[in-house]
Automatic annotation (TrEMBL):
The name this protein goes by in its record: Serine hydrolase domain-containing protein
GO molecular function: hydrolase activity
Organism for this UniProt entry: Streptomyces lienomycini
Domain Beta-lactamase-related: 5-323
Keywords recorded for this protein, A-Z: Hydrolase
Extent of the signal sequence: none
Domain of life from the UniProt record: Bacteria
Enzyme Commission code: 3.-.-.-
Any Pfam family matching the protein: Beta-lactamase
């Protein structure tokens, strides 16, 4: 059993999650991969083909679609919200830029449970439009799911296509990520890992997006909603480790993954989180220019350009409840162990009971 397998099996024993899957590799593919545990505490064992709710790992994948539109000239990083969304003209968000939305420096607050008072897509989007800014644009990194909801609307308006179609055409299709989808169908839902026993919905959530604002939006948002498998996330990790191969031109990839907020307290790239000097979910070993993203459900993807290494971690740490922060230590330990893994192929993937 590998170090990663032991570490993640211990996380299950500590009831941080019922199941976990992982892959660490480079541009050539995985070097250490596997899975441990069950799809739910009363569910079947993981088999490696399981479907995971990516939560906010949706953001950089949607961001890759946005950057592909930028590369094609369909959208500009300095385009304003008002340019593409007429309903925002005359309001406090009219002059916000695509770049500010991508770097979480727009001033739009995040983690706002709009779904509680706005049960329809139209009313929730109107609530996003009217949310007062809580920082002057460009002055503070303030993580904002609502900002990425707006970003998704801009991408749709600029390209004249729904966000799910754009993600499929510009990201998933080129990499062969056939199981990375919004709103999974019945066949995929049958392979889904359980998330929360949701108080709002009054039932356990399986194969339906965990994020409640995304539920009201119909399951598709720039901030959350994507589901994926270990194999698909490996494809994405390998492509990023290869400098965005199959997705973006080298210059666009470099622009997207470079730090854009080093004059502020937190390091952010375009739709990616940089490695903060203190408290990074990437632990202590991944390099200073590494980047990645985490998801509330217990997912993450991290890439180190210096070593051309990626690390994928998929868990259901919100099952059956979102309380508890055990994933923080597990995630950091996982990334440290992943970064220290010798760059030697370790053979095929394996399941761990």
């Amino acid at each position: 059993m590998s170090v990663l397998a032991e570490l993640l099996a211990e996380g299950r024993e500590q009831r941080v999650y019922s199941g976990a899957a992982w892959s660490v590799g480079d541009a050539r593919g995985p070097r250490d991969r596997g899975w441990t545990g069950t799809r739910g505490w009363d569910g079947p064992p993981l088999d490696g083909d399981d479907l995971w709710d990516l939560a906010s790992v949706t953001k950089p994948i949607a961001g890759l679609a946005v950057m592909a539109l930028v590369e094609r000239g369909t959208l500009g990083l300095d385009d304003t919200v008002g340019t593409h969304l007429p309903g925002y003209r005359g309001g406090d968000k009219e002059a916000l830029t695509v770049r500010q939305l991508l770097t979480h420096t727009s001033g739009i607050p995040g983690q706002v449970p709009l779904y509680r008072d706005h049960p329809t897509r139209a009313s929730l989007l109107e609530a996003v439009r009217l949310l007062p800014l809580t920082a002057r644009p460009g002055t503070r990194v303030q993580y904002s799911s609502q900002g990425f909801i707006v970003l998704g609307l801009i991408a749709e308006a600029a390209a004249g296509a729904p966000l799910d179609a754009l993600v499929e055409r510009l990201v998933c299709g080129p990499l062969g990520m056939r199981d990375t989808v919004f709103r999974p169908d019945a066949g995929r839902r049958a392979r889904a890992v359980a998330t929360e026993d949701c108080p709002w919905r009054g039932r356990p959530v399986v194969g339906e997006v965990h994020d409640e604002n995304a539920v009201v939006l119909g399951g598709v948002g720039g901030h959350a909603g994507l589901f994926s498998t270990l194999a698909d996330m490996e494809r994405l990790g390998a492509a990023l480790a290869a400098g965005g191969r199959g997705l973006l031109r080298p210059g666009t990839y470099a622009l997207m993954t470079a730090a854009h907020t080093d004059d502020l307290a937190l390091r952010r790239a375009l739709a990616w989180q940089g490695r903060d000097p203190v408290g990074s979910p990437a632990g202590e070993v991944f390099g200073p220019d590494s980047y990645g993203h985490t998801g509330f459900t217990g997912t993450s993807l991290w890439v180190d350009p210096a070593t051309e290494r990626y690390a994928v971690l998929l868990t259901n740490r919100v099952h059956p409840t979102r309380t508890g922060d055990g994933i923080v230590a597990v995630r950091r330990a996982f990334h440290d162990a992943a970064a220290l893994l010798p760059p030697v192929a370790s053979g095929r993937g394996h399941g761990v009971e």
